[in-house]
Structures are given as structure tokens and as C-alpha cells.
Amino acid sequence: MRTSKMFDDLKIGDMNQIIRVVTPDDLYVFAHVSGNLNPANLPATVAAEPDDPADPAPAMWLGSLFSAVLGNLLPGPGTLYQGQTLTFHGRARVGEELTVRLIVSEKRPPRTVVLKTHLLRGDEMIVEGLATVLAPETRVSIEDSVLPELMVASHRHLERLLAACRDLPPLVTAVVAPDEPNALAGALAGARRGLITPILIGDAGRIGEVAARCGLNLRDVKILDVPDHNAAAARAVELVLAGEAEAIMKGNLHTDELLSHIVKSQGGLRGTRRMSHVFVMDAPALPDLLLVTDAAINIAPGLKEKIDIVRNAIDLALALGIILPKVGILSAVETVNPDMASTLDAAALSKMGERGQIKGAIIDGPLAMDNAISVTAARCKGLTSLVAGRADVLVVPNLEAGNILVKQLSYAAQAEGAGLVMGARVPVLLTSRADEETARLFSCAVAVLFAHWKRTGKSAVPPRATVA
Fold first, then answer.
1. How many angstroms separate the Cα of 234 from the Cα of each of 222, 241, 260?
2. Omega into 39 within 30° of 0, i.e. cis?
3. What are the phi and psi torsion angles at 60 (to 5°)?
4. Would you call 95 exposed, middle or buried from its count of C-beta atoms within 10 A (0-12, 13-18, 19+)?
5. CA angle 15, 19, 25 (to 5 degrees)
6. What span, in angstroms and rounded, lies between the C-alpha atoms of 157 and 150?
7. What is the Cα–Cα distance from 184 to 137, expressed in whole angstroms?
8. What are the Cα distances from residue 322, in Å, to 63, 290, 308, 366, 460?
9. Strand (E) or helix (H) holding 346
10. What letters, b where the CB count within 10 A reaches 16 and e where it falls short, cover 186-206?
């Protein structure tokens, strides 16, 4: 409950303050609300000088913080602004803790109040000025209301992975049937970012038409004219076997058509494990990357297949800098039910993790979706687990469940997703034909990072602090 102070309640020297930490989302929201798109005031700007760090908060956003004290605390609800002066002595930046302090300095009957406005970083004055307001005419009390949530749909984890690829060599990638705009633009975007060196395999005439229609530059890009999609997929596998390509990227063809050549027992790209697919999802509402497997290849895997699915996902998580991945085995419930095969598989996989039969991760299951990614849901259901509420990897019971989950994350939660086939000799970038350029760029980054991990045994992604 917040209750305003009337004019007669106020005394010279009365003071109140709040503590505020500058976040990247503050800068994005202010840019949207104000219309000020100055890149110097947005996250991830490049500092001009070594002693001038990036990510400064906009000056007028800092000034707006005084209204929080005025409207909530001093004088409080019902206060009306009349004027504000501001003098800026420094810049505040993302991650810094600020003290927003107001002090009553003058009273002018019948209702005018003048307050000193100070914004401090520790003991350093960043902003100072004077606020002139009208104190409330009547005493107002309000509950601490909960505003509707705002979600900034930024994909900071994608940017973090792209940054980790900057010093890594590009992957020579056979791009199969890039004969529609999304597929071609995605491959060329990967080339521009230095992630891949594409070899385009498909109908050269159609590829040229798409490039001309979309304004895409094919100069210095190698094109192999193979008009038939099936033949193009076979040619991509041949390039890998000949050592002329280090990865394969799906373009405008069906997944089955591409995989039929990759999984051949003779002349294919099978490794020692069963192949599986991993989606790497960057959802704005989640604090970290979320890996989902298998939502694209294995339709109804049994326990034997799930062992390889889990191992493949752990490898990719390690490649992406997740030091000890937390793997949640999903089902509809979080208890073992003999009538639900997925719960039995989950329990077996969990025990295999405990016994060291599956290494490199903490595995727990069965877990329902809510208590796999929500600590609050896990606590409500009494789950005491290192994985519950904190899963980095979700292993779905079957392809249908995985496909639905990934599409919900993409279309309802604004997640961006990369797709990679694991278990083959080389990375296979497997995205939906509906995926746009960003998703394909994301997949390129994941493939580059996985190839580096396989080559060196080390992740190029700086480790992030995790919640125990």
C-alpha cells in the first residue's frame, strides 16, 4: 500500500530514494517508447575508445527515473509534475547500480513543492536537478499494482554464439537445393558473416533467378549444376566423402530426401551412434539456451535409441559452452507410471546417468514440461533435483511431442531456433523450409562451434555462470 503525503505533511529536508540497476531491456524499451533509435544508446554498441565502455543508458531515461520516486513515494500518488531541470555529470551503463534520491528543498503554498533530484553511482553524482511538482489535493492510497509483463524479444544467446565464432575458420558447406529465397539468403548470410564457405548444389538456372529476384550476389560463390533434388543430395554426400566439404546444409528439399543419402550404410555419413536432431532454441523469456531433441528424425524412439539421442545432445551442449548440461527427460508427468513407457525410459536414463553409463551431464526424469524449466513449478510439486526447473536439454518422448514443442516455442514464445543433425560424420544443418535467414544463420553458428569442439575438444563459447 502506498499513501501520498499532502502539502502540510511535507517538511524541508524530507528524503526518499530507490535503488535501480540498468539492464539491456531498459534501453530497448526506452528506444521503443521514445522513438529514439540512436545506436549509441542501445546494447552491444562498440566503444569508440578503450576508456569509453559501451552500452550507455540514454540521458533522458536516467531523468525519467525521478518520476518513480515522485509518483510512488515523495510526495507519492496524485503528484503532478510542473517542471524539471537536469544537469548530467556522467554516463550510467548497463549493469550499474544507481541510487535515485529526492529531497524536499522548498514549499510554496498552496501546493507547490520543489525537490532536489540526485542520481548517484555509489558516491558519484551522475545527474542532478530540481523538480517542481504539485502535491496531491487529497490523500491517495494505492495498492502495489502488478503491471502487465513486458517481454523484449531479443535473441541475446544467438548474438553470443555468433560472437564466439568470430575467430573460427569458416566451414566449407555443401548447400543442397538452395533454389528458393530463404534457403539461398540464409546460405549467403552465413558466408557474409564468415561462418561458412558455401558450395551451392542445385539447379543453377533457378538459383540464379532467385538471386536476381532477391538482389543477392553470387559472385565468387561456387555452384554445382545438379537440377534434380535427389541427385543434389547425393552429390553433397560425395563431396564430404571426398574431403571437399566439411558440413551439409539443407535447402529447399524434403528432410527425408536429404537424409536418405546421409544414412546409407554404404556410401553414407553414418557415425558410431544413431543419428538424431537437436534444436537449439533462444527464447526471450528463458534465461539460457534450451536444447530440444529429437523433434525431426526419430519418430518413436525406444530406450536404446534414446541413449544415443541423449549422448548426442550432451555433446552439442558441451560444444556450446554449457559445462555440465542438465538434461530433463520429458513425459506428461513427473512420476514413474508403469502404464506410460516414456516415464520408464526416463527413469532408466536417469539411473544410467547416476551410474556413469551416460557421461558429461546431470540427467533426471521423468519431468513434465512445467517443472523441467520452471523452478517455481518444481518447488510447488516438491521436486528436489539439480535438473528440475533448470534443464538445459529437453529430451522429448517422441517426434510428435518434440515438433509441437519447438513450434510452440517459435510461434508463441518468439524463440529463434537452430537445427543440427548429430551422429553423422559431419555437421548437418537441418532447418525447416519455412525458416528465414536468421534461423539459418543461427544453425551455421551452431555447426561451426560443434565442428570446433570435435576438432579440439574445447568449446569456443565462454562459460556462463549457472544456478546451482
1. 17, 11, 9
2. no
3. -75, -20
4. exposed
5. 140
6. 19
7. 65
8. 39, 11, 19, 22, 11
9. helix 341-354
10. bbbbbbebbbbbbbbbbbbeb
- Could you tell me where the DSSP H helices lie in 123-243? 156-164, 181-192, 204-214, 229-241
Helices (H), 101-149: none
Query: For the chain, what is the radius of gyration of the CA atoms?
Result: 28
Identify the residue whose cell numbers are 564468415: 194
Residue 154: its pLDDT value, please? 65
Task: Please give the model's pTM, rounded to 2 decimal places.
Answer: 0.74
Task: Give the position of cell 558519484.
Answer: 124
The set of long-range contacts for 339-346, using a CB threshold of 8 Å and a minimum separation of 24, is 340/366, 342/366, 342/397, 342/398, 344/303, 345/302, 345/303, 345/306, 345/397, 346/395
pLDDT of residue 153: 64
- The parts of the chain modelled with pLDDT lower than 70 are 44-54, 146, 151, 153-154, 433-434, 464-468
AA identity, residue 123: D
d(CA 358, CA 56): 46
Alpha carbon of 25 to those of 63, 150, 414: distances in Å? 17, 10, 16
pLDDT of residue 291: 97
Which H helix or E strand runs over 305?
helix 303-319
Give the pLDDT confidence score for residue 48 in this predicted structure: 37
- For residue range 358-384, list pLDDT tens digits in order: 999 999 999 999 999 988 888 888 888
**H-run or E-run covering 317:** helix 303-319
Q: What is the 3-state secondary structure (H, E, C) of 6-21?
A: CHHHCCCCCEEEEEEE
